[in-house]
Structure formats: C-alpha cells, structure tokens
Design a protein that fits this description.
Layout lengths: L18 H20 L7 H17 L2 H4 L13 E6 L7 E11 L5 E11 L8 E7 L24 H6 L3 E5 L15 H16 L6 E10 L1 H16 L4 E8 L5 H8 L3 H18 L14 H10 L8 H8 L17 H7 L13 E6 L7 H14 L3 E6 L7 H15 L5
Parallel strand pairs: 4-5, 4-6, 6-7, 7-8, 8-9
Antiparallel strand pairs: 1-2, 2-3, 3-5
InterPro entries: AB_hydrolase_fold, Lipase_secreted
Keywords: Membrane, Transmembrane, Transmembrane helix
Protein name: Lipase family protein
Length: 424
C-alpha cells in the first residue's frame, strides 16, 4: 500500500551508480558552498544544514553499492545478528544513524539477510538504553533498488522521525526482505515482514554505539501497518527478550481480500495486485498447488507482472501507469476472496485473522477520504480487535487521504504514547 511520493526514495536508479550521479554530488556541494557565502557560514542556518545533508547523502548514495553487495556465501546466524553496518554522515541534526545488514527469518523458516536503518538521539540514553520504535514503511515497490535505506535522504519515509527522536526514542527501520539486498519476496507476506521488523530491533541492539534498549513500540503505515501488526502478534514467541509496549498503525493493510477487491478497478489496485500476487506466487508457489499467476490473473496481466515488479512505486509512476492502465478492468481472472489457494493465502496474511487479542494497546489512525485503504475496512478491523479484547484507540483524521495520514497522525500518536506512560 502506497504513500505520497517522496524525493530520493524509489527513484529507479539502478546499481551501479553512474558517472552522472557524481555530477549531482558535485553540483550539490557547489550549492552548499554558495549557500555558505550567502549566510556567512552560519551553521545555525536551516538551509545550510539541509543542503549539507543533501550533499552528504548524494555522496553516500554514489558509494553505497558495496555495502549492499552480499558475500558469495553467507553462513546462517541467529535472527538479528548484524552482518554489516556503517555510520551515515547525513543523519538528521541531533541524531546518529547507521545502515545495517542483518539476519532474519522468512515465512518458510529460512535464514535471510535484510537491510535497514538505525537512528538514535545524539546524546546519553537512559539506564537500559534508548527505548526503540521499529518503523514499518509503506509500499515503495518490490525491486531491490526500491529500498527506503537507498537514496539521497534515506530518512525521508520515516514518518514522525523527528518527533520520536526528540522524545528520546531510537528508531529501527527495516527495508523488508528482497529490498536493498537480494532475498525472497516479502510484499504483504505478514510473517516475513513481522520478523524483519522485530529483527531490525535486535540488529540495532547489536550496534554498540547505538546503545539501544529492549523497550519496544511498533509503528507502521499501510503495508507497514500490516507488518507492524504481524510483528505484534509474533513478538512474544519470536523475540521474547524485547519488551513490547504498544503498536500503532496508520491506514493499515488489514483485510487483504477486501482491499484488493475494492482497489482492483483502478491503477493503484493493478499495481498492488502485481506486487502481491507475484510475491505470493514466488514464495508459496513451489509448495502450494495452484499458486501461480495464471490461476488468478488474465494472460495479459500475468505477462505484464514481471515488468511492473521491476518498477518502484515512488519515482516510476508514469512507467507503472503505462504498463498497468490497459489492464484496468481486465486484470483478474477470478475473485481472489473465493478462488483457491489465493483466498487461503490472503486470509493467512491478514492480521488478526485468528481472532486473538493483541497483547498491548493498539493505536489506529485512518484518513476519512482514503481511496486506497478504505475507511470502512479499517473500521471493521478496529471493531474486530475491540471485540477480541484488544485495548484500541482509534482516530479518524478529517480531510486526509492515504499518503498523508501517518504524518498527520503523529501528534495524536505522541499524545497516545504519553497516555501509556511512554516517552512523548
């Protein structure tokens, strides 16, 4: 599920970085030097700080390919074990940050390597280390280069980052499996995403200078809402050393069959369907009879899926529309809510489908004019969670669509954290 386009994320620039990117770096550095003259070298200037961060980010992006290149052989390790980390010089003011590659586990139980970010306040943590928010990002795409940690400003999609770090939280931000580094598909595959979200916290704790503790809040938007909810469901069994305190979601992907059915009549639904059905066919297909694209998509849609999955949602919308628009109205060959094995696969990846209450308080924000994650579907999820016994706080953000709901929910989120006795 998507968010508003943000600069520097999902740009579609393939590795390796080209000579043209070096020119961008040089140009940005020139802008910074010019700005320094204009403002009299005032490091207090917001423009200076932002321009310098952008130049540093461009320089880092130009040289980051080796960081994301996996060794020829990677030995299995405990989930959350850090394979590689490096400081990020363009961290936002008042913070420290690292890129990280770490071990996790996918839905099939296999050891995988995942990339992500770790951001902490630049100061002394409380006794026991910084409490941590594990951020689960909205849809950026499914190709390796669509990872949020790749780009001029890898912090751009972390909604509420400043408020959270100012309040004294560290933030762990997974890319999910298959983004950033090679790995199995994870799009809307709840167990894989949830494990990635939890193991990002373990990885953060594995960076000595980050000084991250065990108190955990989960926070996710759209696709990331589904990931955060699965992480909450799995935390006690999968990562019992972490002290889960709360889970917060904005416009979460909950009833997957209902969402796909509601969205499939426009280009957004076709794009999400391409990402999701391809991921499911790749992961479940080898062991699940009938889980191939030709059992749920029209021949034209199945033929277009590989090309659509090479494109990032943020930055390559025009190309996605060019391929996907002719498929609107001629995409599905059956109803995924009733066609097997797709109905069972979608149900298995729908958070809360088992009917159990979440073990911690739940915050849900929903935009009232969201046309991608429809308000009635989120309302049904909130109702089902309350009936199951979860302590739910739900907000409708008026005049708000899908892309901006998480940002607009941040003030309410911080208030809610404070009401639970957590930093705010």
């Amino acid at each position: 599920m998507s968010a508003k386009p943000e600069p520097g994320v999902g740009s579609g620039n393939a590795h390796p970085r080209t000579r043209g990117r070096r020119l961008v770096v040089d140009g940005l550095l020139a802008i910074v030097l010019t700005a320094a003259v204009v403002v009299g070298l005032s490091v207090a200037s917001t423009f200076w700080t932002d321009a310098l961060r952008l130049a540093e980010g461009a320089a880092e992006e130009a040289a980051e390919q080796p960081f994301y290149t996996l060794p020829a052989t990677v030995d299995p390790a405990a989930p959350g074990t850090v394979l590689r980390s490096e400081p990020i010089g363009s961290a936002p003011p008042g913070t420290l940050a690292w890129r990280v590659l770490y071990h996790s586990t996918d839905v099939l139980g296999d050891d995988i390597v995942v990339s992500g970010l770790v951001i902490t306040p630049d100061g002394d943590p409380p006794a026991g280390g910084w409490p941590v928010v594990s951020w689960a990002h909205p849809t950026t795409g499914t190709a390796i280069r669509c990872a949020p940690s790749v780009g001029l400003d890898p912090f751009d999609l972390v909604e509420g980052l400043k408020e959270l770090t100012d309040a004294g939280y560290a933030v762990a931000a997974t890319d999910y499996s298959g983004l950033g580094v090679d790995g199995p598909d994870s799009y809307l595959i709840g167990v894989t995403e949830g494990n990635n979200v939890l193991d990002a916290v373990r990885a953060a704790r594995g960076i000595p200078d980050a000084r991250v503790g065990t108190e955990l809040v989960l926070w996710g938007h759209s696709q990331g809402g589904q990931a955060a909810l699965f992480a909450a469901q799995q935390a006690a069994a999968y990562a019992p050393e972490l002290q889960l305190k709360a889970v917060a979601v904005a416009a979460p992907a909950t009833d997957l069959a209902a969402l796909l059915k509601a969205d499939i009549g426009d280009i957004s639904g076709v794009t999400i369907g391409s990402y999701a059905f391809t991921a499911y066919a790749s992961v479940y297909g080898p062991s699940t009879p009938g889980a191939s694209l030709d059992t749920i998509l029209t021949p034209a849609a199945a033929a277009a899926a590989p090309s659509m999955n090479e494109l990032c949602l943020l930055g390559q919308n025009s190309q996605l529309h060019e391929i996907g628009a002719p498929l609107v109205g001629d995409y599905l060959s059956g109803d995924p809510s009733t066609t097997q094995p797709w109905a069972d696969l979608l149900a298995a990846n729908t958070p809360g489908s088992g009917g159990a209450a979440l073990p911690v308080p739940l915050f849900v924000a929903q935009g009232d004019v969201d046309q991608l994650v429809h308000p009635d579907i989120t309302a049904a999820f909130v109702k089902s969670q309350a009936e199951a016994g979860t302590t739910v706080t739900s907000y409708t953000i008026e005049g708000t669509g899908h892309g901006t709901v998480a940002l607009r929910a941040v003030p309410k989120l911080m208030e809610w954290l404070g009401s639970l006795g957590l930093p705010h």
